[in-house]
Amino acid sequence: MGVGLIHQAVAHQARTAPEALAVVDGDIRLDYATLDAVADDWAGHLAAAGAGPGTLVPVQLPRSARLYVALLAVLKCGAGYAALDPRWPRERVDDVLRQLDAPVLVTDLAETSARQPVWRPPAELSAPGGADDGFRAYEGPEDTAAAVFFTSGTSGTPKGVVSPHAATTRLFAPDGPLAFGPGTVMLQAAPASWDAFSLELWGMLTTGGTCVTARDDYLLPDTLRHAIDTRGVDTGWLTASLFNLFTEIDPDCFQGLRRLYIGGEKLSTAHVGAFLDRHPGIQLLNGYGPVESCVFVTVHPIAAPDCAAAYGVPIGREVPGTAVHVLDDAGAVCAPGAVGELCVSGTGLALGYLGDPALTGARFQEARIADAHLRVYRTGDRGFRDTDGVLHFTGRTDRQVKIRGYRIEPEEIEAHAAGLPGITHCVAVPVPGRLGTYERLALFYTSAISAISTTSATEDSDRTDGTDDSVLLRRSLGLLLPAHAVPDVVRRVERLPVTANGKVDRSELLALLPG
């Protein structure tokens, strides 16, 4: 089983193959020996600044080799890291920093609003010479906190998921579907604040592979093609939305890959089928899992017959160190074929939600399964296990959705919008796309008479001339929310329609939008 501490696995690779290529970042090429030595040096500085067991250290650096070294250094101190996206609005960063209560912030920014001391890592990635300074990397248990991933929260406050080392290292066991190893070259393109970042970075560095940095903020087919042709990238990960886009505008950009993982939302069988026809030599895998069980819970190697499955491409079988239980409303295990809630147990589970024991207790519960008491995470996803033991996803039990691979809690957007001047009522509504997934988010609101502009209730308010209250509202939300959570369309209405049982009629609201 590939469990243990992340930094110990990287150090093992440095001892085993010190000259092997660990990171490619533009013109920067780091071998494992240098990567590990520089991280040791930086860890000494961070430890002196207060980073250590029981602390959480925010790291706000652009995607780069320096980011990877900084994160490794934090782990060597025994602390957990929280990688903050440099594109987040300041209000969100400040909120996250307050939750972390960190001893030090790692950043290059000349000015910050942080209350804690700032450590700016050296520009050069070179190991210091001279005698051993006495620093020793942390050697504690594998359930030590390694990372905090911030995701949408229903209250409007970012929700921190505290993930242990074993949640990451269990993924890459030699007998599993993520068994990488020396010779594997993977593109690192996911935002560092995502758990998918762990797949691309630690999936390589803990197994002896090579991580190639995507220099642009947004991955495009040309970027992927260039990385394959010039850097030897043979393994990749794409959200379902990006996969669909790439197969439409440049279906040959995948040529040269050995395997491609896709997921994050329901797959389009049309796009999957077209890919399989065009690239029979590339292994295509569907990965499923909530951030509360880091990266993947299940993986499914996709074959052509899967495109004809009743609920679309299956989500597959469990990765090592993980079990999925399909439970009914009474908490009993469902028979094969019966739909229930997907609940997850095993070493992949998060320790809980940062600073929120009530939510932790509500979502991570004790369950009696096959005469054993297990700690399980209730995903809120519904599905079933077929007679072959393969899992299928059928939908959600709540309002949470995935849009362009990002997990969106509509309540978070509503909470922020409701706090803005002039807003009386609002509702965030996911807009279905032609592929059966949600492609964008719309916010409908009513406002006090003093705040109303000349915009009518039926006028398309997704304007850019700056004269419209709806445009100003969208801009205001952009100062509070990460870009992926800002509604694509904001529209003022005279009233929020309701159904016969008194609930907001989202279908009637969606009918106001252009087709």
Description:
- There is one protein chain.
- With 515 residues, this protein is an alpha/beta fold.
- Among the domains are: 1-15 and 22-126 and 140-181 and 189-206, Rossmann fold; 409-510, GMP Synthetase, Chain A, domain 3 (2-Layer Sandwich), CATH 3.30.300.30.
- It contains 13 helices and 26 strands.
- The strands form 7 sheets. The chain has a 5-stranded mixed β-sheet. Strands 16, 17, 19, 20 and 21 form a 5-stranded antiparallel β-sheet that branches. A 4-stranded mixed β-sheet has the order 2-1-10-9, with helices on both faces.
- Helix 1 crosses helix 2 (32-48), helix 2 crosses helix 3 (65-76) and helix 8 packs across helix 9.
- The model is unreliable at 449-467 (pLDDT under 50).
Can you lay out the helices and strands and say which pair or pack?
Elements: H1 6-16, E1 21-25, E2 28-31, H2 32-48, E3 56-60, H3 65-76, E4 80-83, H4 90-100, E5 105-107, E6 118-119, E7 145-151, E8 159-164, H5 165-169, E9 185-188, H6 196-205, E10 210-213, H7 221-231, E11 235-239, H8 240-249, E12 259-263, H9 269-278, E13 283-288, E14 298-301, E15 317-318, E16 322-327, E17 340-346, E18 352-353, H10 357-363, E19 364-369, E20 372-385, E21 391-396, E22 401-403, E23 406-408, H11 410-418, E24 423-432, E25 438-447, H12 469-478, E26 489-492, H13 506-510
Parallel strand pairs: 1-10, 3-4, 3-5, 5-6, 9-10, 11-12, 12-13, 25-26
Antiparallel strand pairs: 1-2, 7-8, 8-18, 13-14, 14-15, 16-17, 17-20, 19-20, 20-21, 22-23, 24-25
Helix pairs in contact: 1-2, 2-3, 8-9
